[in-house]
Amino acid sequence: CRRIGEEGIVLLKNKKDILPIEPGRYKRILVVGDNATRNMSYGGGSSELKTKFDISPLQGLLEVYGDAIDYAPGYYAGKAMYGRVEQLDADSLLRLKNEALAKARNADLVIFIGGMNKNHRQDCEDGDREDYNLSYGQNELIGELAKIQKNTVVVTFAGNAFATPWLDNVQALVQCWYLGSMSGTTLANVISGKVNPSGKLPVTFAKRQEDYPCFQYGEEGYPGVGRQVHYKEGIYVGYRHFDTRQVQPQFPFGF
Question: What is the model's pTM?
Answer without folding.
Answer: 0.95
